[in-house]
Description:
By secondary structure, the chain is mainly beta. It contains no helices and 16 strands. The chain has strands at residues 2-7, 10-16, 37-42, 49-54, 60-63, 69-73, 77-81, 86-90, 96-99, 104-109, 112-117, 123-125, 139-144, 150-155, 160-164, 167-170.
Amino acid sequence: VLAARLSAGRLITYGYRPLEYYVRGDGRSDGRSEAGGELRTWDPRTGKLRSDASVGGFQEVDFSSDGAWFAGAGKETRLFEATGRLVWERELQLRQIAFASEERLIGLRDEELVDIAMADGTAKAFPRSYFPATKDAPYVSVITTPNGRHAVALLSGGRLTLGLGAGWQER
């Protein structure tokens, strides 16, 4: 996993290699018990490293549009300041995570969309929409606009769910 965002005069990067990456050709490990994920901020004009933090490995990540926050999801979900300071961690297994606004995150958990409060990580399922996701047609992906006013969720089979502020409408 490799992700980057240029915002507010800084470049923020996250890089992660799973532990399997460190297994040699003969099948033996190089001795690592855990693979790390590195969150770094850079000065894009000079290339100078501003901060470097080991934040753990995530399958899905996102940066806030202003570059101040970093969220990682996988077996658990965590929110960090861009410097790497942990804000909260929750036992919330998500397939994807996205910043929806300055106060909310959107996540995909199995076949449901999850609304997550940035303040404390409290999560709740979104209300079922007119064409709810099912095990046969789960949500595949979710993207948000930078201002958080709209979100689009793609379901398998090509259906889209458009989020408008607090409500969801099928399109």
